[in-house]
Known about the structure:
Layout: E1 2-8, H1 17-20, E2 23-30, E3 37-46, H2 49-55, E4 65-66, E5 70-78, E6 90-93, H3 103-106, H4 114-122, E7 132-133, E8 141-142, E9 152-156, E10 160-162, H5 169-172, H6 178-190, E11 197-201, H7 205-216, E12 221-226, H8 229-237, E13 242-245, H9 251-258, E14 263-268, H10 273-281, E15 283-291, H11 305-310, E16 314-317, H12 325-337, E17 347-351, H13 356-364, E18 370-374
Parallel strand pairs: 4-8, 11-12, 11-14, 12-13, 14-15, 15-16, 17-18
Antiparallel strand pairs: 1-2, 1-4, 2-7, 3-5, 3-9, 3-18, 5-6, 6-10
Helix pairs in contact: 6-7, 6-12
Bound molecules: zinc ion (2 copies).
Amino acid sequence: MRIKAAVLRTMGVRAPYADSRPLAIEELELAPPGDGEVLVRVVAAGLCHSDLSVINGDRPRPVPMALGHEAAGVVEEVGRGVTDLKAGDHVVMVFVPSCGHCLPCMEGRPALCEPAAVTNGAGSLLSGEWRLHGSGGERVNHHVGVSAFAEYAVVSRNSLVRIDPSLPLEHAALFGCAVLTGAGAVFNTARVQPGTSVAVVGLGGVGLSALLGAVTAGAARVIAVDIVDGKLAMAKGLGATHTFNATQDGCADAIRDLTGGGVETALEMAGSPQAMDLAYRITRRGGTTVTAGLPNPTLRWPLNIVSLVGEERTVKGSYIGSAVPGRDIPRYIGLFQAGRLPVDKLLSERVKLDGLNAAFDRLAKGESIRQVLTF
Ligand code: ZN
Ligand code: ZN
């Protein structure tokens, strides 16, 4: 079938994207779902910093690529062997399709699925196949098995989680990346304990989802840190007990004073070495620094090893919030429906396909939290 999709053909073009237009809205040919695959009508897709990182070249991927990895939609058709989904089901897409058989999958860590890491890197679906082609017949890569800035997507069954159909799909989309990653970093990776102090450094969609998760987990102090005052004000409205602008002199000392030596858990959600350094400095003795940021792969962070040892610190990476998506997405949706994880407040704007480039300008400038593409 012919579909419209946002295709990136060249990484690293200069902003403003409203002028340079790195995303072209193209007509592509989408092949029918193969064995174990599903055709989904995309209803809503969130704009995430990881999309921007592909556009600006910080996270290199094979091009041409149809972008978009945080989405929800409705099942249109299932391929052979898919017996547990049917047309009309509402689904959230997950950007790591777990194979179920590799060692990380068997250990209950599907976010680290090895075959999925290979196929996501190659730009194919988990099957190793490509279902997208351009008008000249050339192969167009899938973005982490999802490619949701498109009217329709063919994805692996294992990239989908069925959800409660009463949930608006523009809210459901956020659970595929921002909430799964942010709240998951709090619940699964850090295992935040009630009554403890948590700091979140970097308040985009993932960071603010982590902040909401910390409130839900019962943290007594929830400290929000960013370089944009508007985001700090938003954090306050979402339950942050204290806010700090990281550009202010003495920010780390002020947080250490406030908390009597630092927080039990600091979460780095900005994807920069400076943010990582700040997060580590505001973590207390015996505490844990978690990072879910994805900086440019050439960047390094100098670690003070003696503090790691002498203060028994823990530094942990968190990918998709250490999620088991089929378990966690329904749980987080349940919290949302109970009013305890109000992620709808992160939705700042709705955009259409032809407005994507300008929307990424707003994201790059920190002028929006979560913009959602709707069809
Ligand atoms: Zn994302
Ligand atoms: Zn696996």
